[in-house]
Each structure stands twice: as C-alpha cells, then as structure tokens.
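ok so I'm stuck.
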Amino acid sequence: MGASKLKLLLATNNLGKARELAVLLEGVPFIITTSKEEDIVLDVEETGATLEENAAIKAEAFAKASGLMALADDSGLEVNALGGEPGVMSARYAGPESSDEDRVRYLLSKLEDIEWGMRGARFRSVIAVAQPKGLLDLFEGTCEGVIALSPKGAGGFGYDPVFYVPSLGKLMAELTMEEKNIISHRGSAARKAVEYLKSAVVNGQHEPS
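replied:
not stuck anymore, here's the structure
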C-alpha cells in the first residue's frame, strides 16, 4: 500500500472536534477517517493527570482498536485566577454529564467576583500520534486570552463563547473557522503534527504496521 493510501484515524467521538481537526490536518499525506466511518465504538476513559497523558491514552487506544495510525487531541482551559483550573478536567468541570452550557455557567460562577484584569487564561492543546504498536510523538499549542463576563457567539464549542481573544477583539465563538484555525491552540499543535507526518512519510516511518 502506498503512502498516499494510508489512513489516519481521528481518535475522538466529538463531532465538533473531528470536523475542526479534519480541516486543520488538510495537506497530510493520509486519508483522514473517523471512528464513525470505521464503525468503531470506543469510549476511552481519560485517566491521565495531564493533557499529554490523556492525548496519548486516546491515540493509543484508537490505534490499537482500529489497526490504523490514530491522532488524538486533549485540550484544556487554564484560568490564572483559578490556579490553572479547569485544566485537564475541562470537559468534566461541572460534572461528568454536563453540557457545554453547564460548564460555561459553572466557570463564570467561580469568576463572579474576579475583575477583568485578573481573568487571564489560555487554551492549551496536546496532540498525540500513535501507531497500533504504540505512541509516536506529542505536539503542543497554546492560545492566550481573557474569560469574558458573559457568553457570546454561535460558533465553536466548549468554552469558546467566553474566551476573549484580545488580538482580534472577539470571543472565540465569534470567529470564522479560518480565523480560529490561525490563532487557536489546536491549530498551533496541528500545524506541528502536520509537518511531522509529512516528514515521517517521506522518511518511510509510517508504513502500515
């Protein structure tokens, strides 16, 4: 099988994240595929204490289950006034069954008495790439911002409606996909992963296992 026919599985069940990753990974010498397309039902327990550990856990689990190279992202919001919370718990901050709206509401309640100048935060993303035989590499990206006083915007997902990007004067949820991809934490990490994958194929490191 030639390198142009190799598949790269997006190791996520989050459709919003899968769509975003697929756009960010345009140009890789792989066919991008999803767990839905591969008919894989896998609920990976994120037991890691860091974003790096969780990204690796997901990538390795999906790679092993599918027999394909897999790419996973674990992202978190780190708020300075909350000592770095929610961090690795970002997706479960308001409880395991909470919605995006629940998490945003809970975050804002914890920052209710915090003035604008103290609401600095960052999104941080770690992308892991794995083969069925194990982890290959990790890539990190960050985006600095401020937690807004109230949500706004219909785009994105997660905490995007309350993450204000000073350099653009907009909330993350108000950005177009193109604008978001340029400045986002996931976009930064993905660009590093794309260069790695291109180089690895050229060097013959990613032939099928």
